[in-house]
Every structure is written in C-alpha cells, then in structure tokens.
Specification:
It is a single chain. By secondary structure, the protein is mainly alpha-helical. The chain has one domain. It contains seven helices and no strands. The longest helix is centred in the N-terminal third of the chain and has 32 residues.
C-alpha cells in the first residue's frame, strides 16, 4: 500500500473520529444544559463524567481509530516503538486497538449515562474505572495517564454519590 493510500485512510479515520466527537459533544451539552435535578447539581459527579468523556473519546477511541491503518500496514510491529511494558502487548497491538475503541466507546456511554442521571451509567462508569485500574499496570507508560484520569473519576463518582454518608451510623 502506498503512502498516499495510507494517508488517505488515516485522513478518513480522522474525519470520522472528529464527527463522532462533535456528535458526542452536542449530546453531552444538550443533556447537561437540560439537567436541573439534584444529581447534576452535584459538581463532583458532573466533573467525573466530563473526565470520563475526555478519557474515553480522546485517549482511547480516537487514537485507536487513527492508529488502526498504521498498525494494519506495518510489518509485524517492527516499526512500532516499544510503548508497552510487556512484549505480548507490543506483538499484538493490532488486536489491542479495536479493544481500545470498545473500551473508549463504553466509557463514553457510561459518562453520558451519568450526565443523564441514569443509575446504569453510574454503575457502568464504576465498572470501567475498576477494570482500567487493573489493566493500567500492564500498559506502562501509557497506563500512567489512564490511572490518573480513571482514579480521579472514580474518587469523584463515589464521593459525589455517597457524599457525607457514614460507614457506621
């Protein structure tokens, strides 16, 4: 495949990714502006949802979509820099990118659910955070940014949901 064809594919993926981000942004702004309930008055939950939107869209879904053509046309990952701690991940990067897109889309769906004040969105977001906390250890150094965003979002979600409740009354 020529460089021109590769750049054309990357350009198409980039346009699709930008359109997806713009659509998600419009949905989020529309729902967040229309929310007047008590849950959205809780700024911690709202900030956590916005962090998860940024994390899911900008760190997982879009880079995964943009890198798929590059990885698909590379020769057995030889020209890919060693960005993961384990050789298994480096050798299977082509399989990991679709999973990153799935994780990113799931994270965005959970964040939109939280912004819409849906309990399923809250539970999905907490599950996403816990899974990411477990996986970030294997993705060094990229997992450091995952850990910072995920742990911050999880603390904000839980502290916003439980507020000042005591463990034992």
């Amino acid at each position: 495949m020529s460089i021109l064809e590769q750049s054309s594919k990357i350009h198409n993926y980039f346009n699709i990714s930008l359109e997806l981000l713009f659509f998600l942004y419009l949905c989020t702004v529309n729902y967040s502006l229309n929310q007047t309930n008590k849950a959205m008055a809780n700024k911690r939950i709202k900030v956590a949802a916005i962090l998860m939107l940024i994390h899911g869209a900008l760190m997982e879904a879009v880079p995964g979509l943009l890198l798929m053509p590059f990885v698909a046309t590379s020769s057995n990952g030889e020209d890919i820099p060693p960005i993961f701690a384990f050789e298994f991940f480096r050798n299977n990067l082509a399989l990991m990118l679709p999973m990153a897109v799935i994780f990113g889309v799931t994270r965005v769906i959970g964040a939109v659910g939280v912004l819409r004040n849906r309990k399923w969105g809250f539970i999905l977001s907490v599950i996403n955070c816990v899974i990411t906390m477990n996986l970030m250890l294997f993705m060094i150094p990229a997992g450091i940014a995952d850990g910072i965003l995920t742990c911050t979002a999880l603390v904000l979600l839980l502290s916003g949901y439980f507020r000042n409740q005591k463990i034992i009354e």
